[in-house]
Design brief:
Blueprint: E1 2-7, H1 12-16, H2 18-41, E2 54-56, E3 62-69, H3 72-75
Antiparallel strand pairs: 1-3, 2-3
Length: 82
Amino acid sequence: MRVLIELNTDTAAFDEDLSAEMFVVFEQAYAKVLEQKARRTTGVLCTAPEEADKLRDSNGNVVGKITIAEDPADAFPGPKEF
């Protein structure tokens, strides 16, 4: 499983307290990964780019997205080496 998180931190929520806001967003991402991991054990992996992949700040604004893929080539075009 591979996870890609994209964030735009140019919102007022990040200006007030960057670390607290990052915590809010990464808590959501963590929950989404756990949900996908649970689905994976049943043989179902959802990579739907709808509401489920949106990450929101504490004000409810969409500030990013999370992509979870069983096969990284399906969701992450181009070479990605870390």
